[in-house]
# Entry
Amino acid sequence: MDHGIAASQPGSELHDWVALLRPSHWVKNGFILAPLLFSGKAGDLELVIRTGLGVLLFALLSSGVYAINDVVDREADRAHPDKRHRPVARGAIAPGNALAAGIGLVVAALAGGMALDTGFATVAAVYLGLNVLYSQWLKQVVLLEVFVLAAFFLLRLEAGATLIGVIPTVWLLLCGGLLALFLGFSKRRHELTLLGDGSAGHRAVLGEYSPALLDQITTVLLSATVISYIMYTLASDTASVVGSSRLTWSTGFVLYGMFRFLYLVHRREGGSPAETLWSDRPLAATIALWAVYCGWVIYRAAPMAS
# Structure
């Protein structure tokens, strides 16, 4: 049974609607920027604007999906110590209103995508369709459900590449996909230990995992991600343009960032990659320094865009 609308103080209603859109999770759309940065085309103002619009449209699309999913998952969210505070789960926003807002955002994002670039709109539509499959079925399939979450990040990479007219290299896709898998399985580890015996009540698939299994998986993924990143810095077209090993030195930032995230997961202070990024200054600083260093190396070497 749905809860009634909670009593609110002045200004709290706006806060609830902002929380429904989950703007802190928009940082995930930073994956759309990666092809622009590593292609060397960030000096092209037109492509920068196109990519920026793509990030904005994906933010609207993902917020619409979050709102719809919050309506679908409201009962399960009430069993979670953190998610029970979400506006729909605690009754601050009526399910019908949240659903209408979510559908409106999705329609607006897809319409904007069509106006911006048909290829981008196609990727956005695939993202939406996969979200529907995930919500209705795939999130209950052990292991595969995290691979689907990783696919959402790969679609963001593909969206960014489409907007600037490049084909993402296999190394970039491997790095992005493996990193997304690492974050996804780390999040499951955090949920499993945080919820304890009640984990399956929130997400049934959690009953199929164990901390030991998830520790093994994240260890393998951490190693594979770092190796793939090193290969990207040595064997990609971007590495060829740089013409030195300078880009490979950025591996230090990658290692520290992944170790920091894993450290927070085991301390039960991290789980959601987006929320952890906003709340942990060392991790946020590491990502910022990594982006600045990579940009300096790539564009100092030789801009690849005219």
